[in-house]
Amino acid sequence: MRERERESACEREFASDRAVSTTLGYVLTLVITAVLVSGLLVGTGQYVDGQRDRVVDRELSVLGERIAARTADADRMVRAGDGAEAVRLRVDLPRTVAGGSYRVEVSDSPGVAGTPAAHDVTLTSGDGGRSATVRVRTGTDVENGTLAGGNLVIAYDPATERLVFESGDDAGPAFDLTPAFAFAFAPPPRAATGGAGR
């Protein structure tokens, strides 16, 4: 009889331990899963942020190269006309880079002297975290300034003898307004309407 009571007591104790170990195993599984999912989310988030930064850097650099090339074009046109004629070049640029705003700053290159003069075209993301600078040399003075990202116009006025960057959002169609180009697209002369012959 005592033997049976002892066995039944052992069985009850064993059953009680089995319930605890099942619950403990379940809790441990949940904790390990939560840690793994959290690590995965953190790692993926950092990877996505890194990819976005690389895209912003690349786009800012490409846009800076485009602005520098058009600045050099404007400079060549001014010098070809001996600085006596007005020049306006439009640069079509997106308003945003990787979904964020940016700004364009033109400044003299510090520590770089000589002719032609060197200027830095710096594009900076809206949050200021990313930037790209492209250097351009011109024989014409360039006015320093900062503009919001978007279409630009590089203008030269013989009165000021400087290239100036303006917002191009209000400018006309994207073509050069040099005198020769404007002449080529001048409207044809109207035919004379002779009322006397009718």
What's the story with the biggest beta sheet? Answer: 4 strands, mixed
Ranges where pLDDT stays below 50 over 5 or more residues in a row are 174-188, 191-198
Task: Give, in spatial order, the strands making up the sheet with the most strands.
Answer: 1-7-8-5
Shape: rod-shaped
- Give the % helix: 40-55%
Strand content: 15-25%
Structural class: alpha+beta
Entry summary:
The chain is an alpha+beta fold.
Question: Can you describe what's shown?
Answer:
- There is one protein chain.
- By secondary structure, this protein is α+β, with helices and mostly antiparallel strands.
- The chain is 43% helix and 24% strand.
- The protein contains 2 helices and 8 strands, in the order H-E-E-E-E-E-E-E-E-H.
- The strands form 2 sheets. The chain has a 4-stranded mixed β-sheet, covered by helices on one side. Strands 4-3-2-6 form a 4-stranded antiparallel β-sheet, with helices on one face.
- The chain is rod-shaped, with a radius of gyration of 35 Å.
- The protein starts with a helix and ends in a 14-residue tail after the last helix.
